[in-house]
Design goal:
The protein has 168 residues and is an alpha/beta fold. The protein has one domain: Hexapeptide repeat proteins (UDP N-Acetylglucosamine Acyltransferase, domain 1), CATH 2.160.10. It is 32% helix and 19% strand. A five-stranded parallel sheet has the order 1-4-7-10-13. Strands 3-6-9-12-14 form a five-stranded parallel sheet. Strands 2-5-8-11 form a four-stranded parallel sheet. The protein is globular, with a radius of gyration of 15 Å. The termini are far apart.
Amino acid sequence: MSIIKRVIEDIDSAIERDPATNGRLEMFLTAPGLHAVWMHRVASFIFHKLRWRIVARMFAQWARLITGIEIHPAATIGRRLFIDHGMGVVIGATAIVGDDVLMYHGVTLGGKTLERGVKRHPTIGNNVVLGAHSIILGDIKVGDGARIGAQAIVTKNVKAGATVVGKF
């Protein structure tokens, strides 16, 4: 799929999930979550394909400065991720995010260990909603279609289709 088609796919997916936006141009110009995802794709290419890791990290920091969203260039991000509002989102290096995920502001996909060379961050399935300021920590899995409530703290696997609130 061409880059233009992927960008349009992202925009259309975001419009479906953001009733406050009135069209493609508005979404393209004003959605920091999309801008962060697009910049992550560039940083990830630099990190993984070109193996210019410092350059990729610098680019990711520049993206963070502009959008308020921090996505490590080593993280794996699926298609049509929409980060609504975005500010304060942190996605760690070994995180994996599936397709069609809706993530609100302040979400953290973080690690629980400082050990090097191991998977330290969560794996988020497809069609998952991550509520504002939810914190998902460690090498855990959030199943397809799960819903994580606002301000939830998740440190255990979440089954597909489950809804989790509070501390889990």
